[in-house]
Specification:
Layout: H1 14-31, H2 36-43, H3 47-61, H4 66-79, H5 83-88, H6 91-98, H7 105-120, H8 129-135, H9 141-152, H10 161-170, H11 180-193, H12 199-212, H13 231-247, E1 294-306, E2 312-318, E3 329-330, E4 333-336, H14 342-357, E5 367-375, E6 379-390, E7 403-406, H15 408-413, H16 418-435, H17 445-451
Parallel strand pairs: 1-6
Antiparallel strand pairs: 1-2, 1-4, 2-3, 2-7, 5-6
This protein binds iron/sulfur cluster and zinc ion.
Zinc ion binds at residues 6, 9, 259-260, 262, 265, 267-268.
GO biological process, one term: mismatch repair
Catalytic activity: Hydrolyzes free adenine bases from 7,8-dihydro-8-oxoguanine:adenine mismatched double-stranded DNA, leaving an apurinic site
Function: Adenine glycosylase active on G-A mispairs. Involved in oxidative DNA damage repair. Initiates repair of A*oxoG to C*G by removing the inappropriately paired adenine base from the DNA backbone. Possesses both adenine and 2-OH-A DNA glycosylase activities.
Amino acid sequence: APAPPPARHLFSDPAEVEALRGNLLAWYDRCKRDLPWRALAVTEPDADRRGYAVWVSEIMLQQTQVATVIDYYNRWMQKWPTLQALAQASLEEVNELWAGLGYYSRGKRLQEAARKVVSELAGRMPRTAEDLQKLLPGVGRYTAGAIASISYGQATGVVDGNVIRVLCRLRCIGADSSSPAVIDQLWDMANVLVDRSRPGDFNQALMELGATVCVPKAPLCGECPVKQHCQSWRRVEKELAFASQKLFGKPSPVPDVEDCGVGDCPLCPPATEPWDSSLGVTNFPRKAAKKPPRAMRTATCVLERRGCHGASEYLIVQRPSSGLLAGLWEFPSLPLAQDLQEEKEKEELAHHLQAWTGRPVAAKGLQFIGEVIHIFSHIHQTYVVYSLHLDGDVTLDPALSPSRWVTEDEFHASAVSTAMKKVLKAHEKQRRKESSPVKGSKRKREAKAQGAGGT
Ligand code: SF4
Ligand code: ZN
């Protein structure tokens, strides 16, 4: 077995662990944010519903801010208050409610897992982290630990981004915090630390500390309830004391700010990137450089017609049921090869649109609107936006992917991604410009691209 890590990086003193738990929980009781899923986890007598509610909140909170999640969570729980209700929902309804929250496969997987609990587990949520992870698709180690500790009082730790940051700072862990070896250490640490009588509160307190006090850029160490247990804070304090003594010319010993003293320590910062005094506690955590997102270009066309009441209607089509933005609706779109000439882009899009309109589409009829940029987690997507007005009736071909005409209000109520909302916004902006004529010559493509609301 590998040698245990140096003691400095661990919580090996039971008295210290006890004190840390007490300080953290007392702070949490005083300062915790009032969040709807927290209230329900305490007051709901039905254990399955309690587990379900925590599960929904945890899935929504992955990659999304608390402030955004609250409204989505409330609407979700109102619409599907139980696992049984969610199991009966359609994917379309789930996507509609999820629209705007991002990472759409989360909603889809949540619903698939709910169906499984209802059909294979008689509607009963597994009660331990191990079973939750084993039996529920899409439930990983973190979510399983959160549900089991918060809903069922299992004394099991959790490690998410906030916990990683807090633990790395508490114990001066400067090795790559995304490496499996470090992540394993952090899980062990979280399991040692978790309070045996209030595990759910303890886990939430640790995450809350990371979200509100031990924040990434400017942590509020002065207000931190566990600073006396924090190795990196101590190191900063020692350095400050040393600097001020030096300033007043007092003789003082060189501060003990070495790393843990173990050569090639697997948890200390690498020798090539040692502790940087100017960064203080934000020396930790450290991550290996991220891969840059992949660049993609997609041509998309706002196909517009006059509806029966005179209002504009737009054609939207459904994406395939797997992959990026699975099952969501969008304007007819076509991924483009990089560095394609503008004329060629238009020709390809015109050809693609023919399938939807059932009639020849001339490339020169496509009006360029602008470019809209949207960043997905791993893709830097540029939508090259065109528009086309269609006269007369268009018969939609049922052999193709599902498609439908929608008014603007219907568009916003549909399961469309945030990126497509930006595309429609760019289109509307262009329309407004056209209806209030501006002096000057024809705008250049670049100028339009800038004004198209890219972010
Ligand atoms: Fe984080 Fe500062 Fe508290 Fe340490 S003292 S845990 S760095 S907020
Ligand atoms: Zn070390």
